Amino acid sequence: MMRASATWSGGTRRIGEILIERGDITPEELAKVLGQKKLLGELLVESGIVQPGKIESALGEQKFIRELQEKKRGAEGSSYQGRAGES
Length: 87
Description:
Layout: H1 15-22, H2 27-34, H3 40-46, H4 52-84
């Protein structure tokens, strides 16, 4: 089940934030793997910290949030453009 968090200020939520919020990983586990030069999901799975399905689910949530933000920006832009043509 996907859920959107209320913490959207500043843009897209990072995958690590999503996984910590869900309780899938701890902040310490995140810090441990961030020093390496790979994608976070790969590092977490390779380290045995989280199962691949959890990463896939978190990526889906991240994509869902991005799409909502893009729709919101698009709606705001078209509303603004409509007013610009009015005299």
